[in-house]
């Protein structure tokens, strides 16, 4: 919410917008890409922490990789669980980045470009 331009809030106030209008029409839409990006980072960190907790007995994919892959010398299973974790994290990162870029209002990679005439 801190990165929302204060001029936008002042403009809505000057046009007679109340607090609910400012929150609903300015603050949330302008801050949504940052909120999605930070949520994506948090989810990825939680997946990493849960995998690390699994290596010390917390369960989940980390526990599967250690118990059945490492301790039983089944390196194939261990690498499969690591690959699953990498794919899941990559998909979450891709979806979060795509959603944040799609909701970004200030232009950027999804901005349409006017074709040049070659003059």
From TrEMBL:
Chief location category: membrane
TM annotation in the entry: 34-56, 76-96
This protein's record includes keyword Transmembrane: yes
PROSITE patterns: ABC_TM1
Ranges where the ABC transmembrane type-1 domain occurs: 1-100
Residues in coiled coil: none
This protein's UniProt keywords: Cell membrane, Membrane, Transmembrane, Transmembrane helix, Transport
Pfam families: BPD_transp_1
Cleaved signal peptide residues: none
Membrane topology per record: Multi-pass membrane protein
Compartments it resides in: Cell membrane
PANTHER family in the cross-refs: ABC TRANSPORTER PERMEASE, D-METHIONINE TRANSPORT SYSTEM PERMEASE PROTEIN METI-RELATED
Family named by the database record: Belongs to the binding-protein-dependent transport system permease family.
Name assigned to this protein: ABC transmembrane type-1 domain-containing protein
The organism of origin for this protein: Streptomyces prasinosporus
């Amino acid at each position: 919410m801190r990165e929302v331009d204060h001029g936008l809030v002042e403009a809505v106030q000057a046009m007679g917008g109340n607090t609910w209008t400012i929150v609903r029409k300015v603050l949330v839409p302008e801050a949504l890409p940052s909120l999605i990006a930070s949520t994506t980072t948090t989810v990825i960190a939680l997946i990493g922490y849960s995998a690390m907790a699994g290596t010390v007995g917390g369960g989940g994919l980390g526990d599967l990789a250690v118990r059945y892959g490492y301790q039983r010398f089944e390196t194939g299973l261990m690498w499969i669980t690591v690959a699953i974790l990498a794919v899941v994290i990559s998909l979450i990162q891709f979806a979060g980045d795509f959603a944040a870029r799609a909701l970004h209002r200030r232009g950027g990679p999804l901005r349409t470009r006017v074709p040049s005439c070659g003059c």
